[in-house]
Design a protein that fits this description.
Blueprint lengths: L16 H17 L5 H17 L1 H12 L4 H27 L2 E3 L9 E8 L2 E5 L7 H12 L3 E5 L5 H14 L5 E4 L4 H7 L5 E5 L2 H11 L6 E4 L5 E4 L5 H13 L11 E5 L3 H15 L15 H16 L3 E4 L16 E4 L6 H4 L6 E7 L2 H9 L6 E5 L3 H9 L5 E4 L20 E2 L4 H7 L1 E8 L19 H10 L2
Parallel strand pairs: 3-4, 3-6, 4-5, 6-7, 8-9, 8-13, 9-12, 11-12, 13-14
Antiparallel strand pairs: 1-2, 2-16, 7-15, 10-11
Helix pairs in contact: 2-4, 2-6, 3-4, 3-6, 4-5, 4-15, 9-10
Length: about 475
């Protein structure tokens, strides 16, 4: 490992709860000194962020791999670094237009007034980041926050300790602590961070932790964007080619070894088609990962806690009668490298833990259905997912399926890649989250839509004086006739 990829020598700043409050106070003071930065200033901030992303890309990738035990370097560079760079390009191009006031209609009664909406920065944004995509899910919201003219404090997951050190060093090189600060640490620091009086907060993580973050934010009435997860289904129509569906599902499911909030969490397949699908899925797995253990392209489960959780789901499923199909063609021993082979699980029921909890790993339960309506009813009977992937040859049927269901995203013959689309909003609905970012929504989510109205100084043009008390003027009679006709 060369000097650009060393991570162990970097020591993060030590923060306690008082330091967190001090940093926030300093950021708020700094924001008040410049509460409406120009488009040029914002674009310059994004350019500085771009420079350090490029400069530190190798350190980021190796630090994340170190946190995982093994995380494919190209998955980090493509899925996180490149995606962030594309987001920066997109926001730099569009933020000037989004900042322009939006003209609004003023009713005749209030003429000759003018009305418009001014998009104002909120102030200081709190960003709470998970461990699965620590760069994308910290820098992604940061890009939106900076484009909207805000300052930001970023809380890194304690499971991403090596990455957190690198990010702290990289962003300190680009920004003062008054503009952007990275906070490392867990336990009391995490709890205290979620209770700070930010102007807005975004949390990405599990639904259960999201509930505690939202409750903590409520102490100061801090508005929150919650990017959660849940069980995102994939549904294959009988007309769809199973080989094509298997390839697209496998690519999305096995990226980052399934540790992705928008990976397909379970599959609904026509009755009698499971065996054929499994054969195609196995072929895709064998092509992408000819071996698993000593293969840096196949990512480890991030830590023992997550590894044991997934293994527990599999053990519970087997005990309740499910069949586990492990796609490990060389029967490699994977325990020591904390990897789980791509796995299909059949014969599952709703009583099994694997169907009650988000899996967040390379394990895919397969359920068969007889009629497509049965599959849709099954999906609609469960909490609304972050994503729903439908595979079919008929776009009209896809429109019907989309209109009959709810999810944060609807993917037609694709999985996962919507996250990297600059112009599409990202977020959940119901149990899978609230609020959106990415796209224009990212700018507006971190802006205050301030209504503005002005009237001419001349009292002769002040129309409301015609309806001031006493209420016995002809204007009042005319107004009532107009309103109630």
């Amino acid at each position: 490992m060369n000097s650009q990829t060393k991570t162990t020598s970097m020591t993060p700043h030590s923060f306690d709860t008082q330091h967190l409050k001090d940093v926030l106070e300093h950021q708020k003071f700094a924001y008040q000194r410049n509460p409406l930065p120009s488009a040029k200033e914002r674009i310059d901030r994004l350019a500085r962020l771009k420079q350090v992303l490029i400069k530190y890309q190798d350190q980021f990738a190796h630090a994340i791999s170190q946190d995982y035990g093994n995380r494919a370097i190209m998955e980090t560079k493509i899925g996180e670094v490149l995606t962030c760079l594309e987001h920066i390009k997109y926001y730099s191009k569009n933020l000037t237009a989004w900042m322009k006031p939006s003209k609004r209609h003023i009713s005749m009664l209030h003429q000759p007034a003018k009305g418009w909406v001014q998009y104002q920065p909120l102030g200081v944004i709190g960003i709470i980041t998970p461990w699965n995509y620590p760069l994308l899910l910290s820098v992604g919201p940061l890009i939106c926050a900076l484009a909207a003219g805000n300052h930001a404090m970023i809380k890194i997951s304690s499971a991403s300790a090596h990455f957190g050190q690198v990010l702290e060093n990289a962003l300190a090189e680009a920004f003062s602590q008054e503009l952007v600060t990275v906070i490392n640490g867990g336990g009391a620091i995490s709890d205290a961070f979620s209770r700070l009086p930010f102007d807005k907060m975004i949390f990405t993580g599990s639904t259960e932790v999201g509930k505690t973050v939202m409750a903590a934010a409520a102490e100061h009435l801090v508005p929150v964007i919650l990017e959660l997860g849940g069980k995102s289904p994939a549904l294959i129509h009988p007309a769809m080619n199973l080989r094509d569906a298997a390839q697209r599902i496998a690519v999305g499911k096995l990226w980052n070894a399934g540790q992705t909030c928008v990976a397909a969490d379970y599959l609904l397949i026509p009755k009698g088609k499971t065996e054929e699908f499994a054969q195609h899925y196995q072929a895709v797995v064998s092509t992408m990962y000819p071996y698993l253990g000593d293969n840096n392209d196949y990512t480890s489960i991030v830590n023992d806690k997550q590894y044991n959780r997934i293994q527990g789901y599999l053990e519970d499923a087997v005990q309740q009668g499910a069949k586990v199909i492990e796609l490990n063609q060389h029967n490699e021993s994977l325990d020591e490298v904390r990897k789980i082979a791509p796995t299909l699980v059949t014969g599952v029921t709703n009583d099994m833990q694997i169907m009650q909890n988000e899996i967040f790993g390379p394990v895919l339960p397969v359920l068969e259905y007889e009629h497509i309506e049965d599959a849709l009813q099954y999906i609609n009977s469960r909490p609304r997912p972050l994503a729903f992937y439908y595979f079919d040859t008929d776009s009209k049927r896809a429109d019907y399926v989309a209109s009959s269901t709810h999810s944060g995203h609807f993917g037609f013959n694709q999985t996962l890649t919507h996250v990297a689309q600059d112009d599409l909003p990202f977020g959940g609905v119901g149990a899978s989250g609230m609020g959106k970012y990415h796209g224009p929504e990212g700018f507006f989510s971190f802006s205050h839509e301030r209504s503005m109205m002005s009237n001419p100084v001349s009292s002769k043009l002040y129309s409301l004086k015609m309806i001031l008390p006493p209420y016995n003027k002809p204007a009042h009679t005319l107004l009532l006739k107009t309103l109630f006709r």
